[in-house]
User: Which sequence fits this backbone?
């Protein structure tokens, strides 16, 4: 078993927090156990995800994201915004950069020291269905924005059992075998409020970038909402989703919001 010193940086995007590690020299390979340890809020650093930054032949850097359970989704909106901020501040990239992910190349722009805009994957696979969940029928809209999301419009997000209902939908047989992220949305005139149960975190998180983007796409598709859509997250911070659309097509969708570096350090990881 080999002990490796791993520099890391803790970065937060609208309440969604990540441990970012620099693996551009490919010093280590086993990310799932590292993610499980590093993301543990009692025995590790604590985070919603581990972001691994690597060299890329297709962009300025490659981003891999690992959930606290060790799973690897295709991408993460706030995770990409956070690694973009860190990459710019660390001198790895300029303000405008291309980030390679499993969901494609994402263009990021560090607007200043506290805000980052990210070009998101094209929303696809729109659908609506009524699902039987915990003895009740629920109207659920679904869309994939790099990762799958199920969106439920509710009267008041403050009174939703996000953990119980979110988990039931995340593991619903309709979404088997991979499951889905679940978003609960309260629609207001100028803003919408969002709470998300995240797959792989298996908890409610304080913000979700793909969830905010999925929410905006669903509101455009089925509720005729126009750009921009301002999404107030559970942290109280706001994410702004902008897009271009006509009656049948949505495109050029972007996610913008706050991000900040919290602290940096080194961890001892025994890889073996």
Assistant:
């Amino acid at each position: 078993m080999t002990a490796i010193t791993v520099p890391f940086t803790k970065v937060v995007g609208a309440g969604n927090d990540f441990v970012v590690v620099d693996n551009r020299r490919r010093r280590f390979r086993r990310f799932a156990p590292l993610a499980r340890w590093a993301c543990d809020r009692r025995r590790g650093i604590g985070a919603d995800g581990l972001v691994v930054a690597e060299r890329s032949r297709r962009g300025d850097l490659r981003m891999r994201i690992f959930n606290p359970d060790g799973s690897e989704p295709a991408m993460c909106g706030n995770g990409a915004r956070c690694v973009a901020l860190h990459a710019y501040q660390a001198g790895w990239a300029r303000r405008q950069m291309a980030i390679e992910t499993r969901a494609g190349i994402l263009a990021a722009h560090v607007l200043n020291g506290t805000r980052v805009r990210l070009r998101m994957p094209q929303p696809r696979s729109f659908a609506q269905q009524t699902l039987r969940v915990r003895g009740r029928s629920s109207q659920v809209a679904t869309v994939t924005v790099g990762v799958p999301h199920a969106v439920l419009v509710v009267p008041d997000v403050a009174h939703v059992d996000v953990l119980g209902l979110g988990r039931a939908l995340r593991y619903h047989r309709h979404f088997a075998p991979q499951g889905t992220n679940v978003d609960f949305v309260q629609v207001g005139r100028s803003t919408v409020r969002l709470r998300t149960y995240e797959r792989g975190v298996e908890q409610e998180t304080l913000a979700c970038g793909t969830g905010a983007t999925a929410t905006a796409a669903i509101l455009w598709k089925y509720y005729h909402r126009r750009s921009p859509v301002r999404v107030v997250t559970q942290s109280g911070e706001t994410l702004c989703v902008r897009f271009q659309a006509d009656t049948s097509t949505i495109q050029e969708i972007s996610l913008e919001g706050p991000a900040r570096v919290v602290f940096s350090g080194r961890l001892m990881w025994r890889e073996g």
